[in-house]
Amino acid sequence: MTLAAVGDDFPQCLFPPEYRLLPGLREVYELQLARLEAVILDRQGMVDQAAFFGYVDDTPTRHLLVCAGETLRLPQYSSASLKQFFAANRFRTGYATHGLFPYRGKFHPQMVRGILNTMGVCRGDIVLDPMMGSGTLPIEAALMGIDAVGFDISPFCAFMTQTKAAALTMNLDRARAALDDPAATYGYFAKRMGVAPPARATRSTPDRATSRVVEDGERYVVAGHPVPDRDTADTYALLLLAFLDTMGYVQRTAGREPFGLFRGILERYLHACTRFQAISKAHPFAMGSVIAQTGDARSIDLAGASVDGILFSPPYSFAVDYLANDSFHIDALGHDRQALGEKMIGMRGGPRLADKYRLYIDDMREVLAECLRVLRPGRYCVVVIGTNRNQLAKALGTGTDEVVGLHEVLRQIGEGLGFRYAAEIPRVVNGISNTLREEVILFLRKP
């Protein structure tokens, strides 16, 4: 074989010819995970669970089917770079309900799938994310037929994950009906959340069907009353998430009229949900269950040795202020931001970065101890953590060459608690190199 032939066939030449890679794989960590899942999964497992392969012989993988077509509809005013990003990364992110609500620091769903395969979890197992953020792990596990439990100290994150999970299977009829008069729905939430609606919205009043959704739904979702009507609660939650997404755009950008943004976002939400439900109906598969709750990773509300795998990414407290980013959303749901900030890992410790770092390490020791407790013997706890050397050097008042990366610190903590180091896979982070240049996928195993 000539050098040119090897180049043309790379990286497919690394794998059995019957396992055909998805297009666009270019990262070393992706090829490492792809190699591992090709070794660990049997042929049917490859069809059902593979993250980086499009075909097994002539059979399309489930991931290829779920990502086929226009899974995420971007607004026309989106930049060319954003459109190009999602076109190039359609197998990595934005499919199913992952594209509902952009969230800083979130996992790439395809990476999560590959890691879960590498961990050896499968249908019937239970996986945990004790810091679930936007819910990428629970949603992706459900798509693989794996049951998932997620906790987050932020009640907004719990709400967001619950909504995205429900949207995989919920009845969308009443949410579609809201698009017949989106101004009425927008006007209701704008008034309820304290944001002045534009003139057009003030002239609309919800009809009886819309009133039932928003007024009864508020009782279930926000006020916490029992949920006798799942359809109403799910519809309300989806509409509310679209509104909160709109407010996030309003805070981040200038010059865009909020009601028009809301209408476009709701259209995109319904397109994504409708698209996924159509695919899952045409190619039926059993999805895993999702339990998403507000909870503290330092005190996980699960029995000992009860989960088959743990995968999470600790908050990048030195790079992202999650509390500030979610301020409107947390207030809208009626929660005390100040009290929440006093409990959030990475936010505690006052203005001095050195104090924040010290408390962060103490908190992460408690988190890893809880992970060891709830994990079944022989199973893996995987931590995706940024090295954060620039921020750590600033916090500790030293040079970057003298700083021990967070992945090394967490490895030492884990081994001290009783985990055994299994492996690590580095991953270059693109786009925020000024704050975070590299992540490490750290595999710890419970003896």
Estimated structural class: alpha/beta
By oligomeric state, this entry counts as: single chain
Biggest pleated sheet? 7 strands, mixed
Over the alpha carbons, how many angstroms does the gyration radius reach?
22 Å
The dominant shape is globular
Please work out how many helical segments DSSP would assign: 20
Q: What do the pLDDT scores average to?
A: 85
Helical residue percent? 40-55%
Looking at the structure, the CATH topology of the largest domain is: Rossmann fold
Going across the biggest sheet, name each strand in turn. 6-5-4-7-8-10-9
At the fourth level of CATH, the homologous superfamily of the largest domain is: Vaccinia Virus protein VP39
Strand content: 5-15%
Spans of at least 5 consecutive residues whose pLDDT stays below 50 are 196-204
CATH architecture of the largest domain: 3-Layer(aba) Sandwich
**H-E order:** HEHHEEHHHEHEHHHHHHHEEHHHHEHHEE
Number of domains: 3
Distance between the termini: 45 Å
CATH class of the largest domain: Alpha Beta
- How many DSSP-defined strands? 10
Write the layout of secondary structure elements.
Elements lengths: L2 H7 L9 E3 L6 H13 L2 H7 L3 E4 L2 E2 L1 H6 L12 H9 L20 H11 L6 E4 L6 H8 L3 E6 L2 H12 L6 H6 L3 H11 L6 H4 L5 H14 L8 H23 L5 H25 L7 E5 L12 E6 L9 H4 L1 H6 L4 H5 L11 H22 E12 L2 H8 L9 H12 L2 E9 L9 E8 L2
Parallel strand pairs: 4-5, 4-7, 5-6, 7-8
Antiparallel strand pairs: 1-2, 2-3, 8-10, 9-10
Helix pairs in contact: 2-6, 6-7, 8-13, 12-13, 13-14, 18-19, 18-20
